[in-house]
Amino acid sequence: MGVRAGSLVGRVVGALVLAVVLLVVSTATAIWWTARQDAQPASDAIVVLGSAQYNGVPSSIFEARLEHALALYEQGVAPVVVTVGGKADGDQFTEAESGRAYLAEAGMSEDALLAVEEGVDTLESMRAVGAAFDERGWSSAVLVTDPWHAMRAERMAEDAGITADSSPTRQGPAVQTRATQFRYILRETAAYLLYRATGESVAGAPGIG
Q: Which domain of life is it from (predicted)?
């Protein structure tokens, strides 16, 4: 009897481990697949997910996102570009403000720019953008972020009431090497599963919070 019970427990534990492994692998595969897509439907706004800025100057990761958003705007994907993101303790500028200033200097009209200066991570930012969309009667967006961040950003945007597609940037440090890509996929897999399980976000490296 004890042997049978032990065998049953072993099978149950083995099945649970296998289920967890399959969940992690399927999620990582979905993140990889989403990263390879590029959806650019006509939308109410292009939303640029914030990243680090230094005294008002966007980091290389953030700059790559902003340049991609500018290209989408010039192609007529949306009439407005929304930059989003708050600031860390001690910062003088928010990510959203830095992004808006960068695009204005690139020649975009102030009327075509909206800075949503809230959010210390993706979840907070998407909720703030959702509120801004509600105020303006907007419903659809093309999200610009790093490829590996796209699936989680889309999910959080949808949960905030936005019909979201993503057009990930193909430039910048987040996509330079296979080692970097692998590391980002692992982090995003953990962050996405945490969000789906708890409804919470996790702050961390650029594109992970």
A: Bacteria
Q: For residue 28, is it within any domain?
A: no
40-58: pLDDT as tens digits: 999 999 999 988 788 778 8
Residue 160 lies in a domain: yes
Indicate which CATH number applies to the domain containing 162: 3.40.50.620
User: By residue range, what is the domain housing residue 121?
Assistant: 34-198
169-173: Cβ within 8 A, 24+ apart:
169/64, 169/65, 169/67, 169/68, 169/144, 169/145, 170/68, 171/64, 171/67, 171/68, 172/60, 172/61, 172/63, 172/64, 172/65, 172/146, 173/60, 173/61
Q: Structural domain tally of the chain?
A: 1
